[in-house]
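Consider this pair:
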Amino acid sequence: GWLAQRLSARRVFGWLFPLWAAGLLLVALTPRWGVFPLALLLGALLAGIWVLLRLVLLEDFGDRPLTLYFTYLALIERAASMVGPLLWSGVVRALHDTPFAFRTGTGLLALFPLIGWAVYRGRKASA
């Protein structure tokens, strides 16, 4: 919130995608003792995404009926809360006999923020 006030919600929101992807990759590469501190950092980043996404929607579409955009947002959030765990558990299940199954599943989850970042940057460039 503090950074968004100082710089802008859009700018800080754009930084959260690569930070989230890097955090997930770090979780995949970190030894067991380091996962919990990283999880705390990722929780803060997730809260930032949740808050700043709404601010960006208000800034970008404030002159239009917001209920439609917030309805789409709610649907996308619900879909993401299903797809991520399904991908992770599918990878872990497929690699269950290997010592790196959990790390591979977590590393693959880093693709989602990177895809979101590419879409967000593409939308910004076309706007």
The chain has a mean pLDDT of 84. The two ends are 24 Å apart (CA to CA). The longest helix spans residues 32-61.
